[in-house]
Design a protein that fits this description.
about 200 residues, mainly beta, UDP N-Acetylglucosamine Acyltransferase, domain 1, nine-stranded mixed beta sheet, seven-stranded parallel beta sheet, about 0% helix
């Protein structure tokens, strides 16, 4: 199985593209970026220098994934999503000189396994999006998102819990939640959610 790279894509020779991955038209993969197996990078997407992307990830059209972002396996990045990397953005220094790469320190966004970031949302680094969490379209994330949380708004706040299927969970009482799609059960403890078959130590 080989990777597929569109003729109009700009993939640096030092980037690593995993088997079965596709890089579509007008997208750019920068120096030393690593893309896992069976990934899709959509039209016009940007993956910054040294970004690490796991297996089975989808980065949709026109998304901007700035370094030093880290995407674990199975992450979804929607169309026109932005993962930022500058806490205090300025084009110039106080003396009026143009900022160079050495004039600021890049900070990244981390997306844990199975998480999803909806279209046109912005994750303001440094933040971590938890396992299987979902960021609603158009949200602005300024704080870490817990595992299995659904967050929405500006700034983003948790509005529901979601399961691995991405469907909002139904509360069944005594801190237990059920996925209406898969039937999988989850347990809420001290504001955290975990699958019922996981111990607290594993989460």
């Amino acid at each position: 199985m080989t990777s597929r790279i569109a003729a109009s894509a700009d993939v640096d020779e030092t980037a690593v593209i995993g088997d079965g991955s596709s890089v579509w038209n007008l997208s750019q993969i920068r120096e030393n970026a690593v893309l896992g197996t069976n990934c899709i990078v959509g039209r016009g997407a940007y993956v910054g220098t040294g970004v690490r992307i796991g297996n089975n990830c989808k980065i949709q059209n026109d998304a901007l994934v700035y370094e030093p972002a880290v995407l674990e396996d199975g992450v979804f990045i929607g169309p026109a999503v932005v993962l930022t990397n500058d806490q205090f953005p300025r084009a110039i220094n106080p003396d009026g000189s143009l900022k160079s790469a050495s004039d600021w320190e890049a900070v990244g966004v981390t997306l844990r396994q199975g998480s999803a970031v909806g279209a046109r949302s912005v994750c303001v680094a440094p933040v971590t999006i938890g396992r299987w969490a979902t960021v609603a379209a158009g949200a602005v994330v300024t704080k870490d998102v817990p595992d299995f949380a659904l967050v929405a708004g500006v700034p983003a706040r948790r509005i529901k819990w979601v399961g691995k299927a991405g469907v909002p969970l139904l509360e069944v009482g005594d801190g237990e939640w059920k996925c209406p799609s898969s039937g999988e059960m989850y347990i809420e403890t001290d504001g955290r959610l975990r699958p019922a078959d996981e111990t607290l130590e594993e989460n």
